[in-house]
Specification:
Layout lengths: L1 E7 L8 E3 L1 E5 L2 E2 L5 E4 L5 E2 L11 E5 L2 E5 L6 E3 L1 E10 L2 E8 L1 H11 L4 E4 L27 E5 H8 L15 E4 L9 E6 L2 E10 L6 E2 L4 E2 L6 H7 L1 E2 L2 E10 L3 E4 L4 E6 L2
Parallel strand pairs: 13-14
Antiparallel strand pairs: 1-2, 1-14, 3-4, 3-21, 5-6, 5-12, 7-8, 8-9, 10-11, 11-12, 13-20, 15-16, 15-22, 16-20, 17-18, 19-20
């Protein structure tokens, strides 16, 4: 098995950036989901509420985040020194506020009042201790630093659909080539290249999977969630892909060997 693709999402719910090489840090891949859109109360806004977020291409720069979107001028968003408490699910995070220009740009594109915030090194967000070790942290991702899916799992789903869907409907960081469909369900610890990972838990899927990344609109058929629910539903929801915790840092490269070190009984 090999690492077939690497994706980062610098803006939570924004467009993916495909990489050939990425650095693994304690919060996940470098630059992944370090920026987030919040509402007037500081609560996170995602593609579940605002599907057009997926149309925003956010590119990390040395001095900020370059934002581009259909019908909008490009804007370099910068974080400022002020901080605010923001909410991601049940977590409260002390984040840095972005410049007013960035918030105005986003508010115009989404047609609602919102702000942009940044998770710097001073911000802390621990992973759920039921699945993590002491000191494990996560970015503004939903709950875990990394998400992995195999190409085989997507192929098995697409074989059931009238029209295939791309992998980006599921927004994984790491895509494994050469695995049997849903082989990742049985993995407990793996190594990719020189870095080891714990496979923490399956990823429960939601309506965000029905957002089409090229249009920022909902799939009129409710796919692929509707079909997934017919064969991937468990006690805790519809599962597809696995959440990972890195047990080291360093570089990952497309083509790296993927080795299963231990499996679930």
């Amino acid at each position: 098995m090999q690492l077939g693709a690497i994706h980062v999402f610098p803006l939570k719910s924004g467009a993916a950036l495909a990489l050939d090489v990425a650095r693994v840090e304690r919060r996940g891949l470098a630059h992944d989901r370090r920026w987030m859109v919040v509402d007037a109360q500081g609560a996170f806004i995602t593609g579940r509420q605002e599907p057009r977020l997926v149309l925003i291409r956010a590119q990390p720069q040395a001095d900020g985040l370059l934002l581009s979107a259909p019908g909008m001028p490009d804007l370099l968003a910068r974080s400022v020194s002020s901080r605010e408490q923001v909410t991601v699910w049940r977590d409260r995070v002390d984040a840095r506020t972005a410049s007013g220009e960035a918030s105005a740009w986003l508010s115009r594109f989404l047609d609602r009042e919102c702000r942009l915030v940044f998770m710097d090194e001073a911000a802390r967000r621990p992973v759920d201790p039921a699945y993590a070790a002491a000191g494990d942290e996560v970015s503004f991702a939903d709950g875990f630093p990394l998400l992995l899916i195999s190409e085989g799992s997507l192929a098995a789903l697409n074989a059931r659909l009238d029209a295939p869907v791309p992998m980006l409907r599921f927004r994984p960081n790491l895509v494994v080539a050469g695995a049997e469909p849903h082989a990742e369900d049985g993995w407990q610890r793996i190594r990719i290249g020189a870095i080891e990972f714990d496979v923490a838990k399956p990823c429960a899927r939601c309506g965000f999977t029905t957002v089409m990344p090229d249009t920022g609109t909902l799939d009129p058929r409710g796919e692929p969630l509707r079909t997934l629910a017919t064969y991937r539903r468990g006690p805790k929801g519809v599962m597809f892909g696995q959440n990972l915790l890195a047990r080291g840092d360093g570089m990952l490269r497309v083509g790296d060997t993927v080795t299963v070190l231990s499996s679930r009984r």
